[in-house]
Amino acid sequence: MIKIYSMLLLMFISTSIFGQVVRDTLEVKTTPSVVKKWYENVQVRGYLQVRYNGLLQTNPDLECEQCDKSWGGNNDFFIRRTRLIFYGQVHPRVYFYIQPDFASAPSSSSLNFAQLRDAYFDVGLDAKNEFRFRIGQSKVPFGFENMQSSQNRLPLDRADPTNSAVSNERDLGVFFYWAPADKRKLFSRLVKENLKGSGDYGVVGLGVYNGQTANRPELNANKHIVGRVSYPFEYKSQIFEFGIQAYKGQYTLLSNTSGVGLQTDKLYRDERVGATAIIYPRPFGIFAEYNVGVGPEFDKFTNSVTEQKLKGGYVTAVYKLDFNGQCLMPFSRFQYYDGGKKHELDARSYQMKELEIGAEWQPNKNFELVVMYTMSARRFEDAVNPTNYQRGNLLRIQAQVNF
To answer: Where are the alpha helices (DSSP H) in 318-403?
Structure first.
């Protein structure tokens, strides 16, 4: 009898336990998953750069309009960038990015205006977002240093030969990017590990855009087209990246002196092709680019703006030294450019050579200090100054906070 009662009790306990497991399982399966609201995926970050260019300046007439409007003249403290970035993956296949800048300088006498830099969204075509369209105002995929954020770049300004292609690096259009998931992770690593990566602009990038640069209306019926292939890979302890890029379109001259000869409708061919070779600093690195093309350029002998050939490139050498949670990166860049700058008055004619030697010190991830000595020789001529060759040196300092 005792055995029978014991067996019945054991069956009852077993049945109760099994029933509870089943109920728990069913409850887990039927409990609805918690879905984040879109605004819970929105993040904010930014950075601020303050410069002083007045130390050891040997020639106040040496300037670089597209580089930094605080060059030359009576230098003072200058806020170069104040960026606040709103971004987020608001849907598994939709990502948005908005970046205003509160330190835009439309002229040397008007500082710290707010202006839109980026305003775009990515639409993924597959679950991993390896194929995606970028729609809105964003960087034009031409070159490496143009893609690289000013927050990460070592020299204080982008190189003339490549940055002269697209002022502020941005325009309004539609771009298609493709990169396999492993390459997208590598692009991200190159930035997170402070290797001065460009960010994720795909292994392949194709696009169509207005061509008059960011925050300007299109002034002709022609669109620019651009294509870029850039492939990063690891070999032993080093990471390399090689790329080629090209764009083609027609550009309407924005600013000219009265009496200067111009083509019909101020319309000029605007074409370039370039190559990129990168060895990331582990610990020694090299960044190099070169491009050639055709664009508008002032000709002082005919007092007109004509289509002329252009060429130029740069090489940057860097060494990355990590110690006690800090990072020191001494670097040197040499650049050369011979051609016009379509965004400036009369498509100002340039021939320049420049050597920069400096170092970036990061005591922590939220603060950076760059000290850079610039030795520059520039011929930059337009109808107002048809003979203008300036040579000089200056010491430049930048403090940057990241948040």
So the answer is: none
Q: How far apart are CA 144 and CA 241, in angstroms?
A: 10
Asked if residues 157 and 67 have their Cβ atoms less than 8 Å apart, the reply is yes
User: Cβ distance 256 to 305 under 8 Å?
Assistant: yes
How far is the C-alpha of 25 from the C-alpha of 317, rounded, in Å? 60
**Tokens at residue 38, please?**
């879109």
What separation, in Å, do the N-terminal and C-terminal C-alpha atoms of the chain show? 77
* Measured distance CA(247)–CA(171) in Å, rounded: 13
CA distance 391 to 379: 9
Nearest CA among 121, 232, 125, 245 for reference residue 182? 232
**Of all helices (H) and strands (E), which one includes residue 286?**
strand 284-299
CB 198 within 8 A of CB 148: yes
Is the torsion defined by CA of 238, 355, 71, 274 positive or negative?
Answer: negative
- In Å, how far are 57, 81, 335, 373, 396 from 155, measured between CA atoms? 18, 15, 11, 10, 10
**Radius of gyration (C-alpha) of the chain in whole angstroms:** 27
Domain 40-402 fold is: Porin (2.40.160)
Q: Which of 336, 260, 249, 338 minimizes the C-alpha distance to 298?
A: 260
Instruction: Give the separation between CA 373 and CA 297, rounded to whole angstroms.
Output: 29
Per-residue pLDDT of the chain (403 residues; tens, 9 = 90+): 434 434 433 343 344 433 443 344 334 444 455 677 878 889 999 999 999 998 899 999 998 888 888 888 877 799 999 999 999 999 999 999 999 999 987 766 678 889 999 999 999 999 999 999 999 999 999 999 999 999 999 999 999 999 999 999 999 999 999 999 999 999 999 999 999 999 999 999 999 999 999 999 999 999 999 999 999 999 999 999 999 999 999 999 999 999 999 998 999 999 999 999 999 999 999 999 999 999 999 999 999 999 999 999 999 999 999 999 999 999 999 999 999 999 999 999 999 999 999 999 999 999 999 999 999 999 999 999 999 999 999 999 999 999 9
3-state secondary structure of 10: helix
Domain boundaries defined on the chain:
40-402
**What residues does 228 pair with on adjacent strands?**
205, 245
